[in-house]
Amino acid sequence: MSWEKVKLGDVSESCLGKMLDQRKNKGTYKPYLANVNVRWGSFDLDNLQEMKFEDDEDERYGIKYGDLIICEGGEPGRCAIWKEELPNMKIQKALHRVRVNEEMDYRYVYYWFLLAGKQGALKQYYTGATIMHMPGQKLKEVVIDKPPLDVQRQIGHYLESFDNLIDNNQKQIKLLEEATQRLYKEWFVNLHFPGHENVKIVDGVPEGWTKPSMNDIADYLNGYAFKPDDWNDKGKPIIKIKEMNEGIIPTTPRNDGRAIPEKYNVIAGDILFSWSATLAAMIWDSEDGLLNQHLFKVTPNNGVCREYVLQSILKTLDEFKNLTTGSTMKHIQRGKLKEVFVNLPSQEIMDKFASIADVYREMVLRLQKQNSALKEARDRLLPRLMNGEIEI
Fold this sequence. Notes:
There is one protein chain. The chain folds into two domains: 4-146, Adenine-n6-DNA-methyltransferase TaqI, Chain A, domain 2 (Alpha-Beta Complex), CATH 3.90.220; 168-372, DNA methylase specificity domains (Adenine-n6-DNA-methyltransferase TaqI, Chain A, domain 2). Helix content is 33%, strand content 20%. It has helices at 58-61, 106-119, 136-140, 149-189, 214-217, 241-246, 306-315, 317-321, 347-386, and strands spanning 4-7, 12-16, 28-33, 38-39, 42-43, 49-53, 68-71, 79-81, 90-91, 95-100, 143-146, 201-202, 205-206, 218-222, 236-239, 254-255, 265-266, 271-274, 280-283, 289-291, 295-300. The longest helix has 41 residues, at 149-189. The radius of gyration is 24 Å and the shape is globular. One of its GO terms (molecular function) is DNA binding.
């Protein structure tokens, strides 16, 4: 089916966010979105920064429901629809705000960008030899398909139904993970574990417990030192810090893995711990991959449950930050794992914690598998809907 083609600048108005300049910025501190806060289809709002905005800048840099927030650099074109997740939000210069006119459905335009990003169709609008950007003028020149408005709305509504289910699952996942964190803190930090009323505390540790270092409760495998020549677009994804933050994306490099020792394989359920740049830890939940250097794959010792190790890492991240070294890229030296200590319970308490936390984790992994299936189904339908092959 042949649809009209238009330039994005002819059916929308757009602007870049505000430059962060501590010396020149005036006004009241307000939260803003930066490039790092924008994912494909969603926003990471856990660690928002603030800068000063004057009252007359609210209209220019403010965003409202239905605005498309598009990355100018990093992965140019990556975008999400703002749905008033938080009030009074602004954007930094690394982001474009695109507000479509009455001829376009904002959901349809988002899904057009999602497909274009997957197919590499946005690269023709990039500038820069090493670091790619999509400046405002290039963004306005992006040529998109323009089906009739009712068709746009049908496509947007249908594809959005998949993402709404994914979003609901993500909310459940967050609640389950928060429940595990609260349980860990109550039992192993506040020491309000089952039967604590009848246990003596000796030197700050319950009787029958120990206080080992993080190095003593698990094995830490540093990833494989992949070279640029090892990167291609086929095989298993190479799991780096970026993939920990964003998941597997179209630009994630791959390798067939034949020359990589098996110990560097990553599967769903593995604990990953980044020890350079940005300290973070998680349970891997995506497709099988290959572990890149600067990440640890963490294997709990016998008798120590996976969730206890993960929560111990998360609980001690601030301590690790104080032990990082390096002037440009901060990282943890392997020996520093011996300098951070945790409360290790008796096996009876460990098993009780595992009986609860492992159930939560299995629920999380099940929801994550559902999300993977929903994304796969959406992505199969996406090109067929956007080119008119399927009519709704």
